[in-house]
Amino acid sequence: MKILHATAEYFPYIKMGGLSDMLASLSKEQSQNHDVSVTLPLIRGLKEKPEFTGKTIPIKLSFPEKTNPVLEILKDSCFREARKGRLKLYFFDSPLFRDLETIYGNNDEHFRFAVYSYAAFHLSQVLDTDVFHAHDWHTALAPVLQKHSPGGKPSVFTIHNLAYQGDHPLWMTGFLKEEPFLLHPEFLLHEGKTNYLKAGLLSADQITTVSPGYRKETLLDANGFGLSEALRRRSDDYTGIINGIDPEEWNPSNDIRIFERFDAKTNKEGKLKNKTELYMEIGRPLIDPNRSLVGIIGRLTYQKGYSVFLQSFQERKHLSHYYIFQGAGEKDLENPLFHLSHTEQDRIYFYKGYSEELARKIEAASDFFLMPSLFEPCGLNQLYSHAYGTIPIVSRVGGLKDTVVESSQNKYYTGIVFEPNDPSSLGYALERAETLYKNKVKFYEVRENIMRQDWGWKKRTGEYETVYKKAIAKRA
Ligand code: ADP
Ligand code: GLC
C-alpha cells in the first residue's frame, strides 16, 4: 500500500508532545511492509538536520494565471524530499513556515495550516497515494479536500486530542471559499466558527483515535468538547487503536542518554545507579537513594491534572516519596511548582523547560511515574515507563486505563490506578505506592514484569491496515 501521513510534528525534527513520537514510530513500523511517505513543515527550528535527497516537488496549480494570497504563497513553496531509513519524508518548504522557530504559538495558524493542508492534499495527488492519513486539526482540511475535489484519495483522520480543534472566527477564514480550496464555509461551521477538526472528521472516509477508551469517552457529551454529536454520527467509521512505541528509540539497554544502561535482569543495580547520578546532577546529592522516587514529565496544561497532584502533595506530607518534576507550559502551574521546589527541597525538585535528555534520565531513575491526567487520549509516558521499569501511577481515563492495570495478581499488575480529578484518590494511590515500595519482593517482581510488556507497533499496525482497507472500500 502507498501511504502518505500528513502531520505538524515528527520526531526528531519537530516535537511538542506525543504526536511527534507516535507518527515517527508508527510510520517506521509501517515502512517494513508498505511504501510510506510523511509530510511535515520545514521550519528553521528543526531539532535535527534532515538527509535531503536534492529532489523537490513544486506545487503545480491548475490556473497559473489566477492570483490571490494563497496561490502566491503556493507558487513560492515546494516539497523537499529526504530519507529516513525506508521512509520518504517530504518537508513543506514555504515562506509561511521557513522562519519559524517553533511550530505552534505563532500568529495566523488558521491560514498557515490551511495552506499546509492544501499542499499535503496536492502531494497525495502527485505521489498517487492509496491512502492519505491526516493527524489532528493542523491537517484536518486535507481530508475535506480529498472528499470534495475530483480525484481525491481515500482518507483516514486520526484524533490525537479533541481539545484542540482549530476553530476560528468565520471572518478569518473567507479565503477558504476561493482558489484553490473552493470550500463552502457553511459546511465548515460549528457553533458560529469555522472548525477545521469537525470538518475533517465529517469528511474522512475513516476516523481513528489513539485508544478504545478515549474513543468511548469522546462519544459522550461530557467529554466531546462539543463534537460528540458529530462523532456519534460517524461512530460506525470510528475506531480506537492504542499507540505503540519504538522499542529501539525507548530502550534502557541501548539508551546513550541515561547514566547507566540496564535491562529487565539488571534493573535493580541499573536504576539505583541512575537515581544516584541524577541526584548528583540536579544538585541534591543528600537525598537518600533508598527513598522511592516519583517522576513526572509533561506539558503544564489543564489536561494533565497537575493541580490535583499539587493538592494531594500538600495533603500527604507524611509520605516518604521524593518527586522530580519536569515540565513547561502555563505560568499558573509553573509558579507553584517553582515555589515548592524551593520551600520543600527535601521533597520535590522542579525543572522548568524541555529536555529530551533529562526526560530519559528521569524515566531511568524513577521508581514510579505519575500521570494524573483529567483526560488522556493515549499517553506515551506510561508505556515508556514500562520499558524503563518505572511503575506508572495513572488516573482512570482514556488510554491510561487501557494500558495500566492494578491487579491483585502480581503477574497482571502493571501499575497503580486512581480516580481522575480526585486529590484523595490520588493521595491514596501514592500511599499504595509507598506500601508496594516497602514490599521489595513484590516491587521487584512487578518491575521486572512491566519491563517485559511489549508496546511495540508490530502487533497493532494490522489494526491501521484494516482501517485503511475500509477507507479504500468506502471510496470505491
Ligand atoms: P501529550 O502528547 O499530550 O503531551 P504524551 O504522553 O503522549 O502526551 O507524550 C508526551 C511526550 O512529550 C513524551 O515523550 C514526554 O516525555 C514528552 N515531554 C513532555 N514534556 C516534556 C518536557 N518538558 N521535556 C521533555 N519531554 C517532554
Ligand atoms: C496527544 C495526546 C496524547 C497522545 C498523543 C499521541 O498529544 O494528548 O494522549 O498520546 O497525542 O497520540
From TrEMBL:
<dbReference type="Pfam" id="PF00534">
    <property type="entry name" value="Glycos_transf_1"/>
</dbReference>
<dbReference type="GO" id="GO:0005978">
    <property type="term" value="P:glycogen biosynthetic process"/>
</dbReference>
<dbReference type="GO" id="GO:0004373">
    <property type="term" value="F:alpha-1,4-glucan glucosyltransferase (UDP-glucose donor) activity"/>
</dbReference>
<protein>
    <recommendedName>
        <fullName>Glycogen synthase</fullName>
        <ecNumber>2.4.1.21</ecNumber>
    </recommendedName>
</protein>
<keyword id="KW-0328">Glycosyltransferase</keyword>
<keyword id="KW-0320">Glycogen biosynthesis</keyword>
<feature type="domain" description="Glycosyl transferase family 1">
    <location>
        <begin position="286"/>
        <end position="443"/>
    </location>
</feature>
<comment type="similarity">
    <text>Belongs to the glycosyltransferase 1 family. Bacterial/plant glycogen synthase subfamily.</text>
</comment>
<feature type="binding site">
    <location>
        <position position="15"/>
    </location>
    <ligand>
        <name>ADP-alpha-D-glucose</name>
    </ligand>
</feature>
<comment type="pathway">
    <text>Glycan biosynthesis; glycogen biosynthesis.</text>
</comment>
<dbReference type="InterPro" id="IPR001296">
    <property type="entry name" value="Glyco_trans_1"/>
</dbReference>
<dbReference type="InterPro" id="IPR013534">
    <property type="entry name" value="Starch_synth_cat_dom"/>
</dbReference>
<feature type="domain" description="Starch synthase catalytic">
    <location>
        <begin position="2"/>
        <end position="232"/>
    </location>
</feature>
<dbReference type="Pfam" id="PF08323">
    <property type="entry name" value="Glyco_transf_5"/>
</dbReference>
<keyword id="KW-0808">Transferase</keyword>
<dbReference type="GO" id="GO:0009011">
    <property type="term" value="F:alpha-1,4-glucan glucosyltransferase (ADP-glucose donor) activity"/>
</dbReference>
<dbReference type="InterPro" id="IPR011835">
    <property type="entry name" value="GS/SS"/>
</dbReference>
<comment type="function">
    <text>Synthesizes alpha-1,4-glucan chains using ADP-glucose.</text>
</comment>
